[in-house]
Amino acid sequence: ASGNTILFGAYGTGARPVINGTSEDHAMLLSDQAYLRFDGIDFAGASGASNESVRILTGNIAFNDCIFRDSADYMGVGCWSVTGGAIHDLTFTDCVFRDNDWTGLYIGSDTAAAGPYNCIVDGCEFDDNGSNANFDHGCYVAGDTIVRNCTSHNNYVSGFKLNDNGAGDGTFAPQLYNCYSYDNGEDGIIVTH
User: Fold this and answer.
1) Which residues does 11 contact at the CB level (< 8 Å), separation at least 6?
2) Which residue blocks in the chain are alpha helix, DSSP H?
3) How far is the C-alpha of 60 from the C-alpha of 157, rounded, in Å?
4) CA dihedral in degrees (56, 60, 63, 69; nearest 10)?
5) Which 3 state secondary structure label does DSSP give 6?
6) pLDDT of 28-86, one tens digit each?
7) pTM of the full predicted structure?
8) DSSP assignment, residue 46?
9) Helix-then-strand count for the chain, H and E
10) Confidence category of residue 192, pLDDT binned at 50, 70, 90
11) Alpha carbon separation from 169 to 30, 39, 112, 143, 177 (Å, rounded)
């Protein structure tokens, strides 16, 4: 429940915990879970086709000071549902998305009919994501997602891509504040409708 968030992280001092993906699956898949928080974990990528380091199909999840890296055939983190309604209340704070084959962080849907909503990306770094011209952005967000105080560089296509999926009325329009984008393959920021 909302008052009983479960926290995952390191105990004591020492190296950052690493959760590895495999050739068959993600490092972590969250589909029916909620009210979870992950602090200081390194999610190392999966090597199988279409496997993100972390796939999120639910809401009420928070990541703080985590690393999402080395997804060999897909995204660092993929948060997606058809209408977007299942993707809500996600928070990524002070995280690093690095060396993923496609996009570092993807928060979106096919239609944006119901979201994503209440998602925040704050103080994150997106570095060296992408290897082809499909989803190759440091950070791709749609819906009611706020991206602020982030840096995106050395990505294959763009640093940031914002897409309102044709909503146009501002209901589920992503927002970008106080971010810095440089040395990306094509664009610093892409805004599409």
Assistant:
1) none
2) none
3) 30
4) 10
5) strand
6) 999 989 999 999 999 998 777 778 899 999 999 999 999 999 988 889 999 988 877 88
7) 0.94
8) P
9) 0, 21
10) confident
11) 30, 35, 12, 11, 19
